[in-house]
Predict the structure.
Amino acid sequence: MTDDLRLRPVREDDLVEFFVHQLDPEANRMAAFGAEDPTDRRAFAAHWVRILTGPENLARTVTVDDTVVGHVLAFPVDGAFEVSYWIDRPHWGRGYATRALAALLREVTRRPLFARTATDNAASLTVLRRCGFVVRSTERAYAPGRGHEIDEYVLELPPSPGADPA
């Protein structure tokens, strides 16, 4: 790889890029579980305030050659920790999501970790599997990006044998 992919703390000016990224209809369809209304700036701002002020949340901006291409997150949900990521669609298919998630996983050592993806999102499932996640179950939930309920995989990154899970 000749490009310079890096993770860094989210800066306020990154949020402008993230908002533009979420306006892409195809990206929203694939992500499935994004914002109810991707054009709602207030809801977007409130969402990111919760992310950036949550004491256990970890948010990183993904840059490639100093260009913001997305973000990766780790956050608590119902006593467990989940990860999530978003790469801007013009940058899909270049391995950035896999490399960014792998970098986040080096920073977040807590195990197990969980992730979710729509069952028909083969690219996201590949990213998660390449990073060591395994499918543990399938759930059905309303997906704002699709406008109806869909099936989603719940995946787990288990502790390494002999590793401390916390």
Remarks:
- The chain has a mean pLDDT of 93.
- The first strand starts at residue 5 and ends at 9.
- The chain has five helices and seven strands.
